[in-house]
Design brief:
The structure is a homotrimer. Chain A is α/β, with parallel strands linked by helices. Helix content of chain A is about 40%, strand content about 20%.
Chain lengths: ~180, ~180, ~180
């Protein structure tokens, strides 16, 4: 199953995703897209790592997410990618073709075996940013979330640590009555 | 029926509204409040237009929305206004009396025949903006959304392309059991 | 019961909280954390006050919230605190130990008698702010909302004046079927 977990800054989305991973009772591979570029980010990464179960394998990959998913997604395993918005920011910085990278990921997702949990930020609910690059990033982050949501079986929005289901195709349809 | 569709930037709210319009199976009149003031906006408008069904009639009206609605809303037709937040920004720029324009629109809505779909942005969920004008705009955008939501039969919040119902008075109340 | 009411700027969260307070039919004590530091805030406070029922008692307390709650929460009364985000901003300004103040409040809440309504802002759903202090405040506001949500029986998100239930432990669990 592919499960997209959306939320704002400090909404509890990472912790919710980690709880989902623990509940699978499968071996977990944690894919971190963050790179410790400055002190603020290094502290954030260290704090997140300390809070994760020690048995989890960690892969750090800022950009080549599709290659990592293709290689690491195996039956009876759980992949947790945290987070997609940082991955997008890394692609922006590297000058990558964003629509191509988004399409590659969205096409790949439904084909992956095992459980895949994706964490992403919602960034489009504030006032229009002053600078053009921030507006462009906001647009691409929104497009990425739409593409991922369409490719996932479940989508959950997290606010104040509480989950709200936006999509769940894993719920069985009610049985038709006898004719 | 009057249906307000709220969402962030690139949340898929416009596409959702367009799907709602198609599902009415009625002739659609699209009311665009955007004006091609700069290249970024001109490109955005052109992209949106290319994605809409070719049979739709389009009216461009940056400010006189109440007059357009009063004239164009007819039985067995669907009006789609995209978007109200841009209309508000146009009123700000023109120095219009915002509370008066908001009240006029909110009072008009329940009286209109046919289907009316309104798209609006949620902009109040980020950090408090630095500049006073942005704070004022954010306040007025919130007040407008509240007034429109109160005047509509249905309100849907769209995130990552997925709809979440906030209000639906068109759903029939469950029948009382026999006494 | 403890009820956390979350929402963006001008989302109608304060009015919703006031309606909840009125519905308790209990004597209401309104705890305002705002201080009239500038003209914009003074006007906002005056407008809010004029809209509240005249029978309510008002206490203004920018920082010592735990002490006020401990003293004022009594059985068969309703406390309405508006808002927690401003309280957090006041603590920031005063250089208070934020995690300690947050923990004190979160531990206190479940022990209070009577009805307690808390209003708080969601500020983490916009683009990452440019300045480091705004990022820090956003992080602490998110942590505070998570801690409060965990300590409350009900959590409601308000958008465009419409409530969306995120948590409600006051709803009775469905009865198990007969074996």
């Amino acid at each position: 199953m592919r499960h997209l977990i959306l939320g704002g800054a400090r909404s509890g989305k990472s912790r919710f995703a980690e709880q989902c991973a623990i509940q699978t009772a499968l071996p977990v591979c944690y894919v971190a897209t963050a790179t410790a570029g400055d002190r603020e980010m290094a502290e954030r990464i260290a704090r997140h790592q300390a809070e994760r179960p020690s048995g989890w394998r960690t892969i750090e990959e800022p950009r080549e997410l599709a290659a990592v998913l293709l290689h690491e997604a195996v039956p009876n395993s759980c992949l947790l990618v945290d987070c997609l918005t940082l991955w997008l920011a890394n692609l922006f910085e590297a000058g990558t073709d964003i629509p191509a990278a988004r399409d590659e990921l969205a096409h790949l997702l439904p084909q992956l075996p095992g459980e895949v949990l994706l964490v992403s930020n919602e960034v489009g609910l504030g006032i229009v940013p002053d600078n053009a690059l921030a507006r462009l990033f906001r647009d691409e982050a929104g497009r990425l979330n739409q593409a991922l949501a369409a490719a996932c079986d479940r989508v959950t929005f997290v606010a104040a640590g509480l989950p709200l289901t936006l999509k769940d195709t894993s719920v069985a349809a009610p049985l038709s009555p006898d004719p």
